[in-house]
Design brief:
Blueprint lengths: L5 E2 L7 E3 L8 E2 L7 E3 L38 E2 L2 E2 L1 H11 L2 H6 L4 H22 L4 H4 L9 H20 L18 H6 L10 H21 L2 H4 L2 E7 L3 E6 H29 L2
Parallel strand pairs: 1-3, 2-4
Antiparallel strand pairs: 5-6, 7-8
Length: about 270
């Protein structure tokens, strides 16, 4: 059985047996409940997909790599739940994650943002020791360092500019929304998905967005953390209501977790001698 490109087709409950899936591309495909038996998936990549309840049984596994969004779901290997181990090891490597979970008050928010600003300053200094081309290079097809900064610009524009400050058009054209944002949706926000800006240009925008967060965080009070804000985040996402504290937590988490991904990839680029 030779697999071809499939887009928005339904394979729910399908069985792939002794199938040749080399080079196949499945995008927006419903494979819920499908069975893969004696199928060669070596080197396959699964991205932005729902793998809840997936079981891998009696299969050859070597160099299997899983990158999860923090705190979502469990991972069980040979009947051993390794979820807590993974979380504890990430906390050991990145203690700022522990501090973030303890944030409750406005002073906590300020202290956490100070920590993240310091960590990002160190990370930017580390990145700038690499050549410009490396900062635009994707590792394992994850966002490049420049793209990561662009995404944090977008996250700040959404949660600080649009929701907390109520700005009608907060989006910088170099911001980078999540990968499932349509080109039309990005264009409606004035975002240029095709832009290939220089590192220095993106760093300048990133610095400006950090300044905006700093201003909001410096002024916020405990009472304001509980205040509700309602806004249309983007036309595709629609109208949502969130407390100010929740909006700031999203910004803190975005800067915390994406820095973790960034330093992981910087280590790869450094090892390559990029």
């Amino acid at each position: 059985m030779a697999a071809e490109h499939a887009d928005t087709d339904a394979f729910r409950g399908a069985t792939f047996r002794h199938a040749d899936l080399a080079g196949a591309a499945f995008r927006n495909v419903d494979l819920a409940g499908a069975t893969f038996h004696s199928v060669d998936l070596a080197g396959a990549t699964v991205r932005d997909s729902n793998l809840s309840g997936v079981r891998i049984v009696a299969s050859a596994i070597s160099d299997l790599r899983v990158s999860r969004h923090a705190g979502r779901g469990t991972v069980v290997v040979d009947d051993v739940d390794v979820t807590a181990y993974v979380a504890a090891e990430l906390d050991r490597r990145h203690p700022e994650r522990v501090r973030l979970r303890a944030v409750r008050t406005a002073d906590d928010v300020r202290a956490m943002w100070d920590t993240l600003e310091r960590l990002w300053a160190e990370t930017l200094a580390r990145a700038e020791r690499l050549p410009e081309a490396a900062l635009h290079e994707r590792v394992d097809d994850e966002w490049s360092f420049v793209e990561t900064l662009r995404h944090l610009v977008f996250a700040t524009d959404v949660w600080v500019g649009r929701v907390i400050r109520g700005e009608p058009t907060p989006y910088h054209r170099l911001g980078l929304p999540p990968t499932d944002t349509s080109p039309a949706g990005a264009a409606e926000l004035g975002i240029d998905l095709a832009a290939r800006p220089a590192y220095a240009e993106v760093v300048a925008v990133f610095a400006d967005r950090r300044r905006r967060v700093r201003e909001v965080v410096a002024a916020v009070t405990d009472a304001e953390l509980a205040e509700m804000r309602t806004a249309e985040l983007t036309p595709e996402w629609g109208v949502e209501s969130h407390p100010v504290g929740e909006c700031l937590r999203v910004v803190l988490e975005e800067h915390c977790e994406h820095r973790r991904f960034a330093v992981r990839d910087l280590a790869v680029l450094e090892a390559r001698g990029a």
